[in-house]
Amino acid sequence: MTDTTVFQARKILTMNPARPSATHVAVREGRILGVGSAADLAGWGPHRLDTSFADQVLMPGLVEGHSHLMAGTLWRYTYGGYFDATDPAGRVWPGLKTLDAVVAALSAAAAATVGVSGANADAPVVGWGFDPIYFGERRCHRADLDRVSTTRPVGVMHASGHILNVNTAALNLAGLLRSGIDHPGIPLGDDGLPTGELKGPEAMMAALDHVGLNRSFLSGDAQGIADFARLCVRAGVTTATDMAATLGEAELQTLERITGAPDYPVRIVSLLRLIGMKPADAVDRARALAARSTEQLRLGRIKVVADGSIQGFSARLRWPGYYNGRPNGLWYTAPEAMREAFTLGLKHGVQIHTHTNGDEATELVLDCMAQALAASHCADHRYTLQHCQLADDAQYRRMKALGLCVNLFANHHHYWGDQHFAVTVGPERAERMNACRSALAAGVPLAIHSDAPITPMAPLFTAWCAVHRLTASGRVLGAHQRITVAEALQAITLGAAYTLKLDGEIGSIECGKRADFCVLADDPTAVPPEALKDVRIWGTVQGGRIFAA
Amino acid sequence: MDELPRTLPTVVIGGYLGAGKTTLINHLLRHAGGRRIAVLVNDFGEVNIDADLIEGAEAGVLSLAGGCLCCSFGDDLIGTLSGLRRRNPAPDVVLIELSGVALPAAVQRSMRLAPGIDVAGTLVLADAADIRRQAGDRYVGDTVRQQLREADWVLVNKTDLLAAPALQDLLPWLAALAPGARVMACAAHALPAELVLGWRTAGPGDVDRADHTDDDDDELAQFVSPALGSFGRPVSPADQVFASHSQRLPAGTDLAALGAALAAPDSGVLRAKALLADGPAGAADIDAAGWLLQVAGGRWQVSPAVVRGAGRLVLIGLRGQFDARRFVLH
Question: Is the CB of A202 less than 8 angstroms away from the CB of B77?
Answer without folding.
Answer: yes
